[in-house]
Amino acid sequence: MRRKVHDLRDWTGALEDTERFQVVAEYLMADFTAHRVRQPLTVDFDGEPLRLSNHGWRWIRAHPLTAPAGVVGDALTVLLDRVGQPLELYIDIHAGGGIDPVAGRPWIEDLYLDIAALFGPGWQPRHLLLLDADELAAAQAGGRITGAQAEAAHSHAASVLKALRRREYAPLQAVRAYVHAQLE
Description:
The protein is α+β, with helices and mostly antiparallel strands.
């Protein structure tokens, strides 16, 4: 496995940014806004153009406060545009994590498998994609994770996809409530 620290400062190309951390229910919300970026970034999302970075856009990470070592779980990041409309979600499947006591940033033991989706009306995820199954297989073949861990990652990802389709994915509900509370 690889340790993955949630730190968007370099990845977004932000020239000016703010970030705040707030505990909401069972999540640490890492709320990052890139006020000014070097240049907007657009990528291909399975045949659809997706702007991933622009001036004034936010990324909110719902990181579980309890993510015991060896227990398969997930951490959600939601991308919002300048006016607060959700654009994309990204979910890391992990085998535990925590909060770095010095930097205060969330981290996970990454199980390579990820889920991404674009948003439709009413915060409903659409165009769900399971990503990086090839990385998971390579990690297993290379001995970085076990067959049991790979199977657990696939099983957990399937349950997350099911919850997203049913509108029952708790971290997304928590992020949505967090965003709406700030508008009030």
